[in-house]
Amino acid sequence: MNFDVCLVSGDPRLCSQDAALYSLRTTAEGFSAVQTSVQRQINPDVFCIQTANYEQGLSFVTPNTPTEQNFDYLFNRFVGFFFGGSGGKGSALQTPGQGNSPGYLYGDIMRTEDQAGQTDFFRLPASAGTANCLDSNPAAFLKDETSRCVRSFSLAQDCTTLPALSFQTYTSFRIFSGKDTEANLVAVGVEAVTLQAVDGTQTLLVEAAADVPLEPEFLQSAKVCNQVVLQVKYTVWYGEAGQIVRVSAAFVLGAVSNSMLPIQQNFQISFVQEAKSDAVLRSSGNPGYVQGLPLVAGWRTAEGIIRSTDPQGSLTVLQSFVEQDCLFGVPQRSPVLFGTDTLSGCTFRLEDGANCSLVSEVILGTLKGQSFPDYVATFGDSLPQNLMDWVPIENQTTVTSLQDCSIPLSYHLEVRWTKYGTLVNPQSQIVSVMEVITFNTSTLPSSSTGGLIPVSSSVSFIDVSASASPGYRAAPTINAKLPYDFFFPFV
């Protein structure tokens, strides 16, 4: 007779688990005996946990609910400018301890050291919950990040005192190359500085003027705060072991008036592996191209095709930004991705008496890039020594009328591709690449007559695959044979 049952199981949040069943039975002799069995329990909840290999991960700390009493404490804990010392009130995280690894792993928080020798984090200001900038966002190793946030401040009072507006704030710290105790300190180098006027006109600061002070300056007469940090782009180079080798930053410093408040600040960090002489060339498919991977391109020589070791590829297209000038500033470029149509551009003003040939050369270089390849691989894994697997980039220039000043106003890259192989697993193959450059067909307006001249850059992919055909040459026939005595004994 069964008079007592005990069921022992694990965490009820698991999708399935083994449960031990203990039952107490009475034998025929009157003794009690424990009978054990194991049964499989299934959790019907759709939000169950499939597997759990970390026991501590099944327990979570109950978060603090903001109330009127603890709101100020929580706000001061998670909001603050991160470039200060680690003892600042705004630091919500603790400085990571040193380890034995010579470099960082994916997702690790990078350690920094300020001018006072205090250890802190490398973080990027970002918006969280609201559009306002919160400076407690840690930058993780190998995680490219782009953020935009709004900065509110008083122009007269905070122009020269608010750290978030200062150029030195974003360059005065150094980064530990790794997590071990012997890690080197890597300084932040300045790659480019672009000055932006109140009307949005940008001018690249030349190298000869690098000694010019770049700190914010308040002009009382014009009620303008000059050289305010509007954009910061960090580029982190790292080695094979994950150690940081070099860090550079590009800035956009702008003039801000009262009518422009609050301002929008842009922050970006990207990671690039330092190229080696024996670096492995990455493919974009095997063999056919994969959707979204960069086109494989290079330059032809007598020995074969020379490819760039840049993982983003050597065939790039101009990125679009608001009020991007074709003649000034450092244009940002992105790789041409297979199967992704792109449309971008820039604008410029043609000054009176400008050298038309020079302007045309600068704009064409902006559209095509400084190192434009002349061959594209037909497959994603085409080898450089196999010249038959590469197609040239053909050129088609359109000038409909003769003008005193011919300037390219449109650049289009047309990529034709087809499906190669079986219907079950077709492979994408590029058959031709054509660049189409269109120049102006009429006289362009000069700066005296006003008006911006737009220039467009585009990439399109055209599928030229033929209609699918069956895999057999002729329709199948029935080959039926009857035995010789099938009609016996009638015949």
The residue fraction in helices comes out at under 10%
- Globally, the shape reads flat
How many E strands?
A: 25
Rg estimate, integer Å = 33 Å
Number of helices: 3
* Approximate strand percentage: 35-45%
Number of structurally distinct domains: 3
Classification by helices and strands: mainly beta
Would you identify the regions where 5 or more consecutive residues have pLDDT less than 50? 81-92
One letter per element, helices H and strands E, the order comes to: EEEHEEEEEHEEEEEEEEEEEEHEEEEE
Termini gap: 79 Å
What do the pLDDT scores average to? 81
Biggest sheet layout: 10 strands, mixed
Organism: Astyanax mexicanus (Blind cave fish)
InterPro entries: TCTN1-3, TCTN1-3_dom
Protein name: Tectonic family member 1
Subunit structure: Part of the tectonic-like complex (also named B9 complex).
Give a structural overview.
With 491 residues, the protein is mainly β. It has three domains: 57 residues, no CATH class; 201 residues, no CATH class; 167 residues, no CATH class. 5% of the residues lie in helices and 36% in strands. Strands 4, 5, 8, 9, 10, 11, 12, 13, 14 and 15 form a ten-stranded mixed beta sheet that branches. Strands 17-16-21-22-24-23-25-20 form an eight-stranded mixed beta sheet, covered by helices on one side. Strand 9 and strand 10 form a beta hairpin. The longest helix is centred in the last third of the chain and has 13 residues. It is flat and about 110 Å long. The protein starts with a strand and ends in a 28-residue tail after the last strand.
